[in-house]
Amino acid sequence: MRDLTTMSVLVTGGGSGIGEATARHLAAGGARVTICGRREDKVRAVADDIGPLCTWVRADVTNADDRSAMIARAVEHGGGLDALVSNAGNMERSPIGEWTAERLLNVFNDNVVAGMLLSQEALPYLEARRGSIVFIGSIYTVRSYPGAAPYAVTKGALETLVRVLAAEIGPRGVRVGGVRPGAVLTEINQRAGLVDDQQAAERLATMANHHVLGRIGTVDEIAEGIEYLVRAEWTTGEILAVDGGMGLGIIS
To answer: Tell me: the pLDDT tens digits for 140-188?
Structure first.
């Protein structure tokens, strides 16, 4: 396993949820972490709270100049780049009758295209350090929920990308993996305007029995899975389910 204390990691969407938990977890293990996000107040506060091992940059992964800026900051902060955790994304839930080309293209750009282009730009630095890329999938790729198609298909695309990209850049020494979370309380639904904090918590609480372990997960547990993929030197092309057994399809 790679030693975290020698690693420089860029985490997109690091101002809240899984991204924030991942930044905190990896920095606690000694990694030099760079976080980015669209909301300066959020990423600044998280980085300040973590301390000197974490730096921040206000950046939008869908913007080409911002992608260059976040990579440059990570390389400067960590003396190179060992891992990219491509976490930033958005939610789009709508039934078939409400789909529009604009909304579908926006969520594909946010969740798939931006991460692909960021990976492309980060690749020379990752190759130099025999590093890795981790994408965030979703339980929606194996459990079918009506109205979730726009979001689910973007996550399905990412899970396919993990396998294809791993095959393509593995010979260059770069590993690619993905984590597939079960139900975890984050801000993604709230940011999309679908629910408020209380509604999100109440909705997820009703899904505890969809997990064979009897409860929803935590962002810290997802961060543990991300850490494994970042450090595991002989694992690539895999989607790691961190879902409390939700993917088994059993409702108790």
So the answer is: 999 999 999 999 999 999 999 999 999 999 999 999 999 999 999 887 6
CA pair distance 22, 73, nearest whole angstrom? 18
Residues 242 and 222: their CA atoms lie apart, in Å, by 6
Percentage of the residues of the chain whose pLDDT score is greater than 70 = 96
Computed over every residue of the chain, the mean pLDDT equals: 95
Range in 24-33, 108-117, 172-181, 205-214 the model is least confident about: 205-214
Query: Which among 194, 104, 115 is positioned nearest to 153, based on CA atoms?
Result: 104
Among 125, 140, 151, 228, which one carries the catalytic annotation?
151
160 CB contacts (<8 Å, ≥6 apart)? none
- Sequence letter at residue 234: W
> DSSP for 18-81?
HHHHHHHHHHHTT-EEEEEES-HHHHHHHHHHH-TTEEEEE--TTSHHHHHHHHHHHHHHHTS-
Distance of CA 23 to the CA centre of its chain: 11
Known active-site residue 151: yes
Boundaries of every domain in the chain: 4-243
Question: What residue type is assigned to position 134 of the chain?
Answer: V
- Which residue did the predictor score with more confidence, 134 or 202? 134
Give me the phi and psi of 207, to 5 degrees please: -95, 5
Report the pLDDT value the prediction gives residue 11, as an integer from 0 to 100.
98
* CB contact burial 139-154 (16+ within 10 A = b; e otherwise): bbbbbeeeebbbbbbb
Tokens 């999938």 locate to 137
Please state, in angstroms and rounded to a whole number, the distance separating the CA atoms of residues 7 and 226: 14
State the fold for domain 4-243.
Rossmann fold (3.40.50)
